[in-house]
Amino acid sequence: MTSLPDHTVPAPPSAPPPIWFLTPDGFFALPLAERPEDRAERAEAFVRELYSRGDEAIWGPAAPYFAGLAELLGNTGVSYAALGLFSTAEESLTPDGEATRHESAEGAAQCAFTLAAVPTDHDGTEPDVVAQGITAALSKEAFNDVRWLDLPCGPAVACITWHQHQITPEATADGEAADVVTAQIQVHIPFPTGPFTAVFTLLTAYVDHWPQFCDMLEAILQTVSFVDPAQGTNTDAA
């Protein structure tokens, strides 16, 4: 799995401490920032990376849209958000045995990926207790698929949900109502220092590729750390 540089989600003194993780190629981080001018600047760079073969006719209208989306997400407590865009073309091998890279024009699957920190009443001595409480709370909903995870950074709880949505005729290309199925997985990881729980969310409507998205998220979760990887191994893992 080819990874980008690790993501550090910093925080002001009153917010959660930093958390680190790696994402694979194909993730485009949305321009989250406190100041509007910073969001606008990051949005300009974001659209040029996302639409690398576009021009000002595409970049101009897209940048304000994504800047506004970043503001909305930031107001909900999200500290990291990314759009995942991946080719669905079948891989073939070159003469030297390496897989070729395909353009997304040959077929692409998308997902939304976010991280938020939710306040939870615990200190650094009881992340297992918090995870057990999260498991019990989520298991009350019959349609939740709840699973306990033992990650290198500590205990975690995964919750998978599927939803069916009806798209109105006004929003479809053929003018007919359509049903869309989405799949979501949320992973709750209590901070070992308390009193917050990190919540990673991956959402996609490309459910035909759900196993691949789950594998990708699993790989990301293996890299989560509450200690700067540059300063040594995470010693807070359970």
If you had to describe this structure to a student in words, what would you say it looks like?
The chain is an alpha+beta fold. Helices cover 25% and strands 31% of the residues. It contains four helices and nine strands. The chain has a seven-stranded antiparallel sheet, sandwiched between helices. The protein has a two-stranded antiparallel sheet with strand order 1-2. The two termini are 25 Å apart.
Keywords:
7-stranded antiparallel sheet, 4 helices, 9 strands, globular
Q: Biggest sheet, strands in spatial order? A: 3-4-5-9-8-7-6
Give a quick account of the main beta sheet: strands, pairing sense, barrel closure.
7 strands, antiparallel
CA-based shape: globular
Number of helical regions: 4
Strand proportion: 25-35%
Helix content class: 10-25%
Unreliable stretches covering 5 or more consecutive residues: 1-5, 91-103, 233-238
Secondary structure topology:
Layout: E1 7-9, E2 19-21, E3 27-29, H1 36-50, H2 56-75, E4 78-87, E5 108-119, H3 127-138, E6 145-151, E7 154-167, E8 178-190, E9 196-204, H4 210-221
Antiparallel strand pairs: 1-2, 3-4, 4-5, 5-9, 6-7, 7-8, 8-9
Helix pairs in contact: 1-2
Summarize the entry for a quick read.
25% of the residues lie in helices and 31% in strands. The chain contains four helices and nine strands; from the N terminus they run βββααββαββββα.
